[in-house]
Amino acid sequence: MGMSSTVFISSPKQSSKSLFLDQYVLYQGKRVGEVDDDRLKFEVSTIVSREGLEMHMCSFADKSEEVKFAVPLLDMNINKMVSGCPWRQLQKIYLQVVYPVGRKYMSASSAPRLKLVSSSELKALYSVDDVKLPSWLDGMCLAEYLPNLEEYLEKQVLEAVSLIDVRRHFIEALAGPLGRPVEADPVYALDTYFKIAM
What we know:
Belongs to the BABAM2 family. By secondary structure, the protein is α+β, with helices and mostly antiparallel strands. Helices cover 35% and strands 17% of the residues.
């Protein structure tokens, strides 16, 4: 049975828990750095300077190994973009990237396993589960893949934020003939209920 990968989204306060997580991230990064895999070493060298990057080494019962990256995406403060948002922690979107280690039969340019990850709170605004990831082209490395992905996600997040105002204006327009809503979502304007006399 293998070890599972976790993307840590920790509080900015330096509690004992966050210090432990920092040490764990450093330990995992050291383990990954010791892996004898040319492709993996190259991939790490191209993105290691990215702030917030996390790496995790997984070992399995059949002695196979894989490395998982949690790559933070989008250099924007999503919290400040949503008026009245209840989020206490900084919301981020991560790309989870999984590389098998030392499998010589795999092409050096073959695509890793890719998955977008975010907190459940952010999914109320923008669900990464519905995102179709761009194709991984032959011979591509992670540093080449990320810019197109981030450009696409930025447009999607900005559109999701703009739709909040569209929904609010629509609700305000309905308030004229229907009266004030008896219940309304004050943040995302997703669920609104009017009382209509029959």
